[in-house]
UniProtKB/TrEMBL annotation:
PANTHER family assigned: BLR1237 PROTEIN, TRICARBOXYLATE-BINDING PROTEIN
CDD domains, sorted: PBP2_Bug_TTT
Recorded family membership: Belongs to the UPF0065 (bug) family.
Superkingdom of the organism of origin: Bacteria
UniProt keyword list: Signal
Source organism of this protein record: Paracraurococcus lichenis
Protein name, UniProt field: Tripartite tricarboxylate transporter substrate binding protein
Coiled-coil stretches: none
Database matches in InterPro entries: BUG, Bug_dom1
Residues in the signal sequence: 1-20
Amino acid sequence: MHRRHLPGLAAALLAAPALARAQSQPSWPNRPIRMVVPLPPGGATDIWARLVAEPMGAILGQPLVIENRAGAGGMIGTEAVKNAAPDGYTILFHIASFVQTPVVLRRWPYRPEDFAPIGKFGTTPLPFCVRADLPVTTLREFVAYARGKQLPYGTYAPGSSGHAFAQALSDLEGLDMVPVHYRGEAPMLQDVLGGRVACAFHSMTASGEQIRSGRIRPLATLGRAGIPSMPAVPSFVSLGYPDYFGNAGFIGLWAPLKVPEPVLAALVDAFRQTMQRPEVLRRMAETDTIAQYLGPEEFRADIAAYQAFWQGLVDRLGLTVEG
């Protein structure tokens, strides 16, 4: 009778070490989490990511380490996150170029469906600015000045809002402006300040200091609400430009698709708590960043709606990137 129980006893004894090892494993997270920013350091996306990383790390009990992986308008870093192990130790902080660049380049190394949304951070007005040495103070004056000159304009990424709307402005006004693409806003800003590029769309987060100091001059802004700290700058829509100039993009956080549900839930909760912190909201307001927190499902729907809008706009403009 006792021998009939021996196989079960032996199996239990063999399983005991594995069970003990599993129970001894520390819970997630037990090491730093990598937050990939697919644009260079110093730009708005990098600044926003660092604002989020510190409080999220404190909530989760492990630091969130920023890794800037720029290139191809953000697609290189984004694809790297898609292909990362879905263990919660690699996440993505990105802007609307997440869907913009692939639409414009007509190349999809990833799809939004390859990611699990963690949440929406917000949006920001993007003013169209010129170098301070240009003899213009209004958009109407700029259009008159630029006509026939083939002025170079900067874009912080091919296929981005800054690319599409500058091209739309050029097309609508018959300006024949020429795009110069950069790997992020920081290097673009340096070339604007250095006189190598005449104009560009900037973020208040990365370029606000230069705008307020008068080194670059804002003429009009995308979106409908204007720039909170500079209400005198008109919106394109208020100046009579098409309604699509009133659209604003998004800023948010994602994980690879197959991250375990408990891990994803912890990331979602940490981000939600971060977006409730008064210090975070205060620092966002100081950089004219508009907080628009959305949870995962609402953010997923927001991305889908924006992608549909963007595809329609790109088709309307016939926007492409050479090479």
